[in-house]
Structure formats: structure tokens, C-alpha cells
Amino acid sequence: MRARLTYFALAGVLVVYFVLVGSRGVLLIRQGTLLTVVFGIAVLVLPGIGAWFLWHTTRFARRANRLARELEAEGGLPVDELKRTPSGRIDRASADEVFAKRRAETEERPRDWRSWFRLAVAYYDARDTPRARKAMQRAIALHAGEQS
């Protein structure tokens, strides 16, 4: 719940920032000189890119959470079997061991979104966020294919 509140607070701050920057871009364009119009357009591009990124990230998180709720309802969420250091961090060897299991499970059932979801969690636990995101995108795509 805390992560969700933090996300929405930061998203709200970003939206306010986009509005403020966008208004500055409009003011520059209204000046009417070639230089200010060019700068104004450039300034308007930045909030556009930021808004697109925020929308894309939010959509990804919502879809991943939907899969997590569905998997939880089925009783298929991965069990936390990771060893932790005294400070609470995940032990790297333990994460690698669990990852090997999840990878084998996904290789056995490459069309099962559930195995891809669990593989994404294993990637994340192994601190490989880019691959975790790609595996989760694969799980989302496979799940969307089942729903169609």
C-alpha cells in the first residue's frame, strides 16, 4: 500500500511539473519570435515524452498487478523461498537457485503466462530488472492472447 501511495504522489508531482513546463512552452511560443517559438516547441516536447512514459509505466503496472491478483486467486503466486542476509537483503546464491527453477519451469511451458510471471519475479529477485520487465511483458502478452 505504501508503494502505491508513493507512486501516485510522485505521478501527481510529475503531472503538475508537466503542466508548469507546458505553460512555459506556450508562453515562449506566444512571444512570436523565431527563437522563442523554437524553444517553446522544444519545451512542449519534454512534457509530452514524460506523459507518454508515465502513461506507459502506469499501464504496465496495472496489467502486472491484474496478473498477480489472478495468480493469487488461483494459489499460484511464487512462494518466498529465498534466504536473506541479516540485514534483510536477498542472498544472491539463493536468488540464482530459485531463478534456475523458474527458468526450467518456463522452458517446459513457454506458452504459460503463469510461468513467465514467476520467471519475472525471479529475475527481479536476482536484481535483473530489465529482464524482469521483459519477462513480465511476455506474461502480459500471453495472458492477453488467452483472453481474446
UniProtKB/TrEMBL annotation:
Domain of life: Bacteria
Transmembrane segments: 7-27, 33-55
Keywords in alphabetical order: Membrane, Transmembrane, Transmembrane helix
Cross-referenced SUPFAM superfamilies: TPR-like (SSF48452)
Protein name: Tetratricopeptide repeat protein
